[in-house]
Design brief:
The chain is mainly alpha-helical. About 70% of the residues lie in helices and about 0% in strands. It has helices at about 1-10, 15-25, 30, 35-50, 55-70, 75-85, 90-105, 110-125, 125-140, 145-155, 160-170, 175-190, 190-200, 205-220, 225-235, 240-255, 260-270, 275-290, 295-300, 310-320, 325-335, 345-355, 360-370, 380-390, 395-405, 410-425, 425-440, 445-455, 460-475. Keywords: Membrane, Repeat, Transmembrane, Transmembrane helix. GO terms for molecular function: RNA binding. It comes from Quillaja saponaria (Soap bark tree).
């Protein structure tokens, strides 16, 4: 039938609707309902891969209506509808459909289980994964690689990485996807040592294997390991993807490894790798955190596609290095460009204003956060304001703000106030802040040291002695040892 060929050529839902309507008006659909509707349903899946402007509920309703008119739908039809549900993120509906399929004694096949296990992964409920696992065992599909890999993925997403590893370990037939799924589960569970052991045992690694490990190290703040593995990848003459490059740049930024970061930048330029918003953000973050603000600005300005994260990287960099007025100018540009700020944006702006002593500007932005920009204030924002007001000597305003907070102040909020009291010698407010910190974190020895310094600066020597005795007599108190990091070579 030529109409089936036309259906398979459809590239969008709109085209499918048109062909579907044509089969109705020409009378073809009543004559050949099974092949036409089955092909419409299977082709519908391919139109979901590109992003669609239609909402998920509308798309799903159409797919269900097509399915309902299929006479005696087969396993193939059920598989397609289950897959559509998972692609549109309706996992519970997919699970209900699988249960209906079993109730009607329609046998699942080796395609059914990967699709329904994807729904289990989306739900992240162990009992569902275990139930489907038993069904796959019953029908003899556990030896199928697609089923195995989907089961590993489902258990990992359900937070049961040990169950996933048991499935992986007991299988005699594994491919690179099996290893990648298991490594991804271990990385997401924070078990980087086990993930690395498995990575080292892999008989064959692909781009995903390297990317998962390097990104995992970066996310867990194992920055040296991330950079080391990146260098190993390049030594093997493997081409890193953008995820690997950004992860390595992020690790360099956190460690202040400017020279290593520059080599990554040179690699990008030498290999003419297109710098998308993701990559430009990594480069801006690197140079900004390492103090190369001119380079960071040049990369930022040359980026054609600046998203919120790119703007935040630039704003935080300016804040770190005290460019208060320039920071506010960039913030205004960001708003004018139609980019909606988030909590990170305001944290960067408030920190920058604090470092530059721009109290009035910070107070206005803090006031407008929720009412104008729709961004909720959290403890970090309050802590930043307490720090700024304290540094400026506005201790009364700081304590008033803290007592007016809708949430209880944490150690950083009260610690910021205590720091302001130390600068300006406000003993009474310092005592109140110190008591709050001791209540929140009794083992914090830093608060005793700060109070001893405040008493000493105001020549209250008896209180200095009492405070120091408290440190010695209280076994719960831990003295915080300061440390510095310097790079001797390179």
């Amino acid at each position: 039938m030529s109409i089936l060929h036309v259906i398979k050529q459809c590239k969008s839902v709109k085209q499918l609707h048109q062909v579907h309507a044509y089969t109705i008006t020409t009378g073809l659909l009543p004559i050949y309902p099974l092949p036409i509707l089955t092909n419409i349903l299977s082709t519908f899946i391919t139109t979901l891969i590109p992003t669609s402007s239609a909402n998920s509920s509308t798309l799903l309703s159409y797919a269900i209506s097509v399915f309902c008119f299929i006479p005696n739908p087969s396993t193939f039809c059920y598989n397609n509808l289950i897959r559509i549900h998972t692609l549109l993120s309706f996992p519970f509906h997919a699970l209900h459909l699988f249960a209906s399929m079993r109730h009607l004694s329609i046998p699942p096949d080796f395609h059914t289980f990967p699709f329904i296990l994807k729904a289990c992964a989306q739900v992240r409920e162990l009992s569902f994964s275990q139930s489907i696992h038993s069904q796959a065992f019953k029908y003899g599909f556990l030896s199928d690689l697609f089923v195995l890999n989907s089961l590993i993925h489902a258990y990992s997403f359900s937070g049961c990485v040990n169950d996933a590893y048991k499935v992986f370990d007991e299988s005699s037939d594994k491919d690179v996807i099996s290893y990648n799924s298991m490594i991804d589960g271990l990385v997401k569970s924070g078990e980087m040592t086990r993930a690395r052991e498995l990575f080292d045992l892999m008989p064959l690694r692909d781009e995903v294997s390297w990317g998962t490990m390097i990104a995992g190290y970066a996310q867990m703040n194992w920055c040296n390991e991330s950079i080391e593995l990146y260098n190993q990848m390049l030594a093997l003459q493997l081409r890193p993807c953008n995820i690997v490059l950004v992860s390595a740049l992020s690790s360099c930024a956190r460690l202040g490894e400017l020279e290593q970061g520059k080599t990554i930048h040179e690699y990008i330029n030498r290999n003419r790798i297109p710098v998308d918003s993701f990559l430009s953000t990594g480069l801006v973050d690197l140079y900004a955190k390492c103090g190369c603000m001119e380079t960071a600005r040049n990369i930022f300005e040359s980026s054609p596609d600046k998203n919120l994260i790119t703007w935040n990287a630039m704003l935080v960099g300016l804040a770190m290095h005290g460019y208060g007025s320039l920071l506010l100018a960039y913030f205004c540009r960001m708003i004018a460009a139609g980019i909606k700020p988030d909590g990170v944006t305001f944290l960067g702006v408030l920190v920058g204003c604090s470092h530059a002593g721009l109290v009035n500007e910070a107070q206005k932005l803090f006031k407008d956060m929720e009412s104008v920009y729709g961004v909720s204030r959290d403890l970090k924002h309050y802590g930043c304001m307490a720090d700024m007001l304290g540094r400026a000597g506005l201790i009364g305003e700081a304590i008033e703000m803290i007592y007016g907070m809708p949430i209880e102040g944490d150690i950083f909020v009260w610690g910021a106030l205590l720091g302001g009291c130390r600068i300006h010698g406000n003993v009474e407010i310092a005592k109140r802040a110190a008591l709050q910190i001791m209540e929140i974190k009794p083992e914090d020895g830093g608060v005793y040291s700060v109070m001893a310094n405040i008493y000493a600066n105001t020549e209250q020597w008896e209180d200095v002695v009492k405070t120091r005795r408290s440190i010695s007599s209280n076994k719960r108190v831990k003295k915080i040892t300061g440390f510095s990091s310097i790079k001797l070579t390179g």
